[in-house]
Every structure is written in structure tokens, then in C-alpha cells.
Amino acid sequence: MSLAEVWRSRVRLLTTTNSPQLNKSALWKWRSYSGQPKRTVTWTWVCGVMLFTLGVISLFTGHVVSHLEWYSQQLSKRTLLDMSRREPIDVWKSKYSKFFYGCSERGRKFPPAVQEHRSNGYLLIAASGGLNQQRTGITDAVVVARILNATLVVPELDHHSYWKDDSDFNDIFDVNWFISSLTKDVTIVKRVPDRVMRSMEKPPYTMRVPRKSTPEYYLDQVLPILSRRHVLQLTKFDYRLANDLDEDMQKLRCRVNYHALRFTKRIQSVGMKVVKRMRKMAKRFIAIHLRFEPDMLAFSGCDFGGGEKERAELAEIRKRWDTLPDLDPLEERKRGKCPLTPHEVGLMLRALGFANDTYIYVASGEIYGGEKTLRPLRDLFPNFYTKEMLADDELKPLLPFSSRLAAIDYIVSDESDVFITNNNGNMAKILAGRRRYMGHKRTIRPNAKKLSALFMDREKMEWHTFAKKVKSCQRGFMGDPDEFKPGRGEFHEYPQACICQRPFSYDKVSKEDEEEDNIPEEVHNNTSHGHGHGHLSSVDNERDEVFPD
Fold it and tell me: I want to staple 343 with a disulfide (CB 3.0 to 4.6 A). Which of 217, 280, 376, 524 is the partner?
């Protein structure tokens, strides 16, 4: 119908209406409307909208395609997590660990190290604590040198702490490998050149930075002093760098900790001999790191069932610290702040499903109560070994040096099929992080808060009930890939920026499961019990710092 025909029909309708006033009003409205310009939709406008829509779709699909691997990883990761939470716990390994691996390569945009003659000066580091605490300090020292564009001098180890170990860096670590492997990251020298020392009007400036200092703090507060004095020493250097750094710096931490810090050939040789002797007796074994020294127990403020004699002895030791508050031992245990006893560790392992014939390697220092304290663990696991029992002759040259002995325990614990600790100290954290980086090898961390309540009520329930509850409360504390929660935990324990994921395949999991099922079950460990079991040495093998500065 044309516009003229519409107008004529509208007029006829108006003229047939009885009300003159209504007719005039309606006619006026029609004329007013018909006088307005006609709104037309141009092809230019339509094409513009279509092009804009296509552009948005193109951008979205381009983003998805370019990040397809990331999206697929997130989807497969969620699938893995959902599956792992529903399935029974395999105490020896995580079924999905094969899909994760350590990745700490330098990024393409990571600039090369600043050469010595162009750096802002020489950075001296005095590490603090025992072997593993010093390891964190050395790792962070390399990163700080990178932040400051400084030349790092090989760090000095602590000779004056609780453990009185006179070992230098090159007595424990392969110093030449340390320097050469980090050439592209940081320039490292063994000492400050004599010409620089002779040119200095004053001794090197010494300072201690606050714990968990940010990169901005180092640039604002430390760099000006380094630039002015040319040689600067940072003392008591342990946990002096912030936990959260950008990805490039976190990957540098991993390159230092997991690749550059290699033990000397002598230490590595003794450690691997102990591992081979364990493997000769057992197809697979557990390494248990026991921190149960008198000082540690006194510091915790907990009660370990030794009666009035124990309370009096630990109270006397506790007087060494003037600032420690009075603690309620029962409340501390309920809060999960007390280290598990050797007996409790044994009960937990048996409840999880480890058999009586499982071989265990115990890494420990002086055990409070000695053999009496260890006997319940030996009864639960008769195949009980220590480095002193397996390499007595090889250890004799190392006996005066606690950090070198601790390095042997570190190597054996790292090589074990399962690692468990009764504490949350430095060795526990460092090894947990390393084992995650090396493929999420089974690493059990006791859920102390829930376990303490179970241990207190253990006599009130049957064994199968106790075991079921232990398995329930340990889910999420077995070293599986899904245990990390963003924003929680130390980076040295959860090196998430350095862990990558392979594509997930249901067929691959099913096929490998079938292959494992078809392998004849030869009992997990050999039946021979090998060497006779002697008493543990009282040498303090693992010397992590657990007390405040």
C-alpha cells in the first residue's frame, strides 16, 4: 500500500467519526506525524554493524585459539582434580603425577646477565642457619643480585649458629658448577678482586634487610648503598626476599635451587651408595624425616607423654629463650602445633596402608628419649635403616660436619619413593618443593590438627575405624598435584610457577593401569632383612633452623 492510499483511508475514517472535536484532534496528530522526516536504515549503517559484530567474534575466537593450550590444560586439570578426589589413595604414587613436570627455562625476553665490569657492585651474602635454611638464602641471594644488577660473590655459610659447622660453600656444593650454570642469569665470582678491595676507603658496608623484603625495597633501600660503596654485605640472609615475585624471577629461583645447587662429588657419591643399598634390599622404600630433638620439643611447648620427668627436662631447656610465652600443651596439640612422635608417624603409615614389611629409611638427629622413643616405630616397621647403619665407614670423614651429614639424608630422602616428615621445618618444605618439581613424587605431610584428635581418641575405636578416619583426614596432604591453593604456602614448598602440565589422555591412564595390573606382584619388598639393626647415632644429622633469629 502506498503512502497516499494510507493517507486517504485515514481521512475517510476520521470523517465518519461523530465527534468533530475528536476528528480535528486526530487529523492534527496525523498531519503532525506525516510531516516528520522518514527514518531510513542505510546500507552503510547495516554494514558497519555487521563488520563490528564480525570483529568482536574474530577477536574472541582469535583469543581462544591462541590460548587453546591454556584452556585445554585448565579443563583437563579440573578433570584430573575431580577424578583424583573420587578415587582411592595410592600410597606409593599419584596416578596423575605423570602429567606434571618441572619447567624453569629462561623466557625469551629475559635479558642476559650484566657483566662484572658493568654491574652496580659486588654483593656479599652471609647465609644463616642449617643446611636447608642456608639453601633458601643462597637461592634468594642469586635473585637479589639479579634485581640489583650486582655481581654476586659466592655466599658464606654460617659457622656460628646452633650447629657449629665449619664447612664452607665448596665443602658442600660444587662451586664451579654453581657459577657456570648461572652464567646467563647472574655474574658470580669466588671473591672480590684485590684491586677493588685496595681501592676502597672503608670496609664493605654491612646491613640486614627485613624478612620477606620486596624487590622495590631492594631497589629503593639497598641499591643506592651498593652504588655508593661498591661492595655490600647482607647478613643473616634467610627468607629475606618476598614470597611472591614475577614469573621470570620465580623460575630463576627454581634454576638455582633444583639445578645449580649440586652437592660435591664426594657427598653425592656417599648419598647414592646409601640409596643403592636400600634399593638392593627393597624395590621401593619410605624416607621418614624425624625432628625430635630435645631443643625442638622444648621450643614447641608440647607434652609428649613422658610424664613429670619429661616436663621438667623440657621446661629447663625452654629457659634458654626469654621471650617464649607460656603455652597450654593440650591446646597446642589440638591446634596441630606439636610434631608427631615416632610412634604416631608409624601408626599413620600403617593406617594409610603401608605393610609391616615396608622398608623405611629414617633421617634424624638426636632423638629425645633415644631407643625407647624409637622402639614403637621399629616394632611397626622392623626393616628400619639409617645412614649410619648403611654407610658407617664412608661417613667417618663427615662426622664432624653436621651440614654434610644432613646432605646425605637430603639425597636419600629425595631419591625415596615416599617421603614423610613429622614437622614443618626447612628440610620438609625444601624437599616437598623439589619432589613436586621432579614429578610430584609421593610426599606425605601429616594433617596434624585432625590427626591429633584421632590419636587422643585412638583407644576408643577399633583399628579399621581409626584407619578409615586417618585416610579421610590425609586426603589433600599426600603430595598430589591438586593440593596447591593459590596465595598459600611458601614458594620453596609450592614452586607452582615452575610446574607445567602435559596434555591429559584417558586412554593413556587406562593403558598404563592395565600394564601395572599385569605385572606380577612380587611383594613390595624383598623378604631378607639384611643388616642387623643397631642404635641410632646421636649426631645431629639434619640441622634446619626451627627457632627464631
Answer: 376
